[in-house]
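Q: I'm a student working through a structural biology exercise. My instructor gave each of us a protein and asked us to get a predicted structure, then write a short paragraph describing it. Mine is Bifunctional chorismate mutase/prephenate dehydratase. I'm not confident about reading structure output yet, so if you can add a plain explanation after the tokens, that would really help. Here is the sequence I was given:
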Amino acid sequence: MAVQELDTLRDQITALDGQLLGLLAQRQQLTNAVAETKIKHHIPVRDQQREEQLLVRLLKQGVEHGLDPHYITQLYHVIIEDSVLNQQALLAERANPDSSAPLNRVAFLGDKGSYSYLATQRYFSRRPGELLEIGCQSFADIVHKVESSEADYAVLPIENTSSGSINEVYDQLQHTRLSIIGELTHPIKHALLVAVDTDISSLKTLYAHPQVFAQCSHFLADLGNIEVKPCDSTSAAMLKVNELNSPHVAAIGSEAGGQLYGLKAIKSNLANQKENHSRFIVVARNRVNVPLQVPAKTTLVMSTVQKPGALVEALLVLKNNNINMTKLESRPITGNPWEEMFYLDVEGNIQDGPMQHALEELKATTRYFKVLGCYPSEEVAPTKVAAVDALSTPQ
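A: Happy to help. First, here is the predicted structure for Bifunctional chorismate mutase/prephenate dehydratase. I'll explain a few features afterward.
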């Protein structure tokens, strides 16, 4: 009797889930229509005031239905982020009609199941055309695939919240003619993956990419005497453990990726920082046009003259033009000992007046200067509304 009652309740939940999905699809269609209107009238993608009003109203309605305000806030942060990213993708597609193709050939590090593979899937899920995946064993090989027209795009990890910048990628950017055309930040959730049932105490060897070992150094230190073997990618590590099929070996990678190789997680959240994310860039042979309605980032590379205060002088150009710098990275210049190449990420569109003025000034004050790309920013800051304040606002 209890089982029958439970089945009835579950059937009702399943029916409601179907209705929710249908309503979300209708909402997405309406946000696409909103994007069309914004294209037509040159209206910015984000309207913070409208988003705040929406959340305040929904919080009040949710409480009337007995729903927790934090639950509503989290739910609509996801919905708003999805709406913003879909609108940005549509605007970018309209601004670059020649870039749309029936097939997107994308090079990335590793094979199916690697973090770069998962990031590639996520980024191109919002873009038109089918996806052809091209797994590679090195960053140099990835870049070469695009430079030689064997691939249309490359997805490259450039920094991680635990292990910092990925220097090999910055070194590739220094010598390529490819342009950065997009970015995304992808959550990295490391798990200990095994092919057969075993205990952590039985493990003798771990396989992973060197960046993964760096991001999980605290966990490795706690393990004590265990052999770590670097692999070219997380997918290569998972494939190795699958082939060995031993209770004494494990890989570190994503649980979702491990499932593709028949592996299961025996421990999760291994990274030093629990909020562990990697930022990826997307590069192509040709630049893209970023509509002014879309929040944009620009990545620059420059070297300064050898005199005191040269870097400060260049950075003051950004300050004086009210341009926010979000990243500054230095790398040695090959063949020039003790000289550095500086990489900068700034918020702004190269079509905008202040940015154009700043770029002209930087060209005049630096020894070498190049724009590596201007692209839509996919870091959607959540709309902040204090639940207590929203609920105390008079109706």
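A: Here are two points you could use in your paragraph. The chain has a mean pLDDT of 90. The domain at 296-376 is CATH 3.30.70.260 (Alpha-Beta Plaits). It's a good idea to check both against the output above yourself.
Q: Great, thank you!
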